[in-house]
Amino acid sequence: MTNENGEKHGLIGWMASHAVAANLIMMVFLLGGAAMFSHIRQEVFPEFDLDMVTVSVAYPGATPEDVEDGILLVVEEAVRGVDGVKRITSTANEGGGVVSAELLLDADGNEVLQDIKSAIDRIVTFPLDAERPVVKLVRSRSRVLTVLIHGNLSPGELKNIGDLARDELLLDKTVSTVELTGLPPVEIAVELPQSVMRAHGLTASSVAQRLTATSLDIAGGGIKTVSGEVLLRLNDRLDVGADYEDTPLVATRDGALRRVGELGTVSDGFADTDQELYFNGRRAVGLDVYRVGTEKPLDISDASRRFVRSLRERLPPGVDAIVVADRSDLYRERVDLLMRNAWLGLGLVMGIL
Known about the structure:
Strand content: 25-35%
Structural class: alpha+beta
Number of domains: 4
Distance between the termini: 19 Å
CATH topology of the largest domain: Alpha-Beta Plaits
Order of helices and strands: HHEHEEHEEHEEHHEEEEHEEEHEH
Radius of gyration: 30 Å
Helix content: 25-40%
CATH architecture of the largest domain: 2-Layer Sandwich
Oligomer: single chain
Number of strands: 15
């Protein structure tokens, strides 16, 4: 705008009267934007922190009532005294339970996580059949893509290939989180003929008790010292079926021990569930690749596709790998649209000036 003497006032008037300064200001904004562009957090969808710590405890064969009495109430009592916990909710299921601790807004999640872990480790009253508690801070993760490995193979063969592929993909510095999906939970099966069990006076419950006693992972309390408290834990858990073959089951009259491998068979298999994954009519296993923290979806997608091209050359005949559900394509399209609009706007501004 101008006054009675024709002098220009206001920001636009000042810019029109000082063209060089206006151009310098524009260049400062352009250079600043270019310098900060590499530091922009790249996400397919916005992420958020849940401010929650969960404690999961598996209790095979237990009813929800047993889980509540033997696990959930004990965990709640231990977690309730931790600083930074706002609210506690528990869920009892058949075979396990979960305790969720909602944190205060100003609480440090990692610090509260360590305090809860210490409180759980001091619990010595868990049932013997309960597995080790899993304590973790719930974080928002974004799945970028899925790598499918498919072929006419058994679930065990696919799992072996999937495990090797996951470990190899994690060697890339761009990728930090990969999860194996599409397969039922792994289980170890011990089979004893009924005639053998009768001959040695064994029952299903007695065999189960002896196998459970062989594989232990329980808290052992703590020892108070001058420098602090030392937590004890007995960790003798068996994770492979072959480890159970040497488990003694019964002693003969002459004092010889008869072991599981001598009386029956032990095999590594999968639970009988409806969880299956197929691609083009062939059984498949999936590798879900996630973006965590400041990782970039485009870099993860490019690294995963390079890995798939290399993997396909080394897979057995009849087995193939493919990338599906790549969400980075959405991000790529959005970035292309923004860049086109940015160049168009820059051209208009430069033309006007």
